[in-house]
Design brief:
Blueprint lengths: L21 H8 L14 E5 L3 E7 L8 E6 L2 E8 L19 E8 L10 E5 L2 E7 L13
Antiparallel strand pairs: 1-2, 2-7, 3-4, 4-5, 6-7
Length: 146
């Protein structure tokens, strides 16, 4: 048995959103079942306070030079290249592997526009932290109900 693989049917069940996961559905259907779980994931957390949005993205095994971030108004795009190390000793063969490699991409919209000039990014310990200041918009205001 040279090729062992693990299939996890509940991989994304906790955060099921049929419209957001359409791209993953097609990626999974396009590959044989034994490779379905080997595509690298880019998992994110997004939070906000009064002044900015905060994004945390898990990118383990990525060099910070291989991370690309683009901002367009309220659209955030993150791409990264996960490279696989191929240093094996002579006569050594792979029996089982779960570590994935390849290009990952994630794009999402925020509720409001971002001030791209003041945005910052830090990468430490496999986690990318983005601080995206909200763009001041003179048209937004609160209306009290009487």
């Amino acid at each position: 048995m040279n090729s062992l693989s693990r299939w996890n049917p509940f991989k994304s069940a906790g955060q099921f959103d049929p419209l957001a996961n359409v791209d993953e559905l097609f990626r999974t259907l396009a590959r044989p079942w034994r490779e379905a779980d080997l595509t690298p994931d880019l998992r994110i957390d997004v939070s906000e306070d009064d002044k900015s949005y905060h994004v945390k993205a898990d990118l383990p095994g990525v060099n910070k030079q291989d991370i690309e971030i683009s901002l367009d108004r309220n659209r955030v795009s993150i791409a990264a290249e996960i490279k696989r190390e191929s240093s094996r000793k002579e006569g050594e063969k792979e029996i089982y592997t779960e570590r994935s490699y390849g290009r990952v991409f994630r794009s999402f919209s925020l509720p409001g526009d971002v001030d791209a000039a003041a945005a910052s990014a830090q990468y430490d310990g496999g986690v990318l932290n983005l601080t995206l200041p909200k763009k001041a918009d003179g048209s937004a205001r609160r209306i009290s109900v009487s």
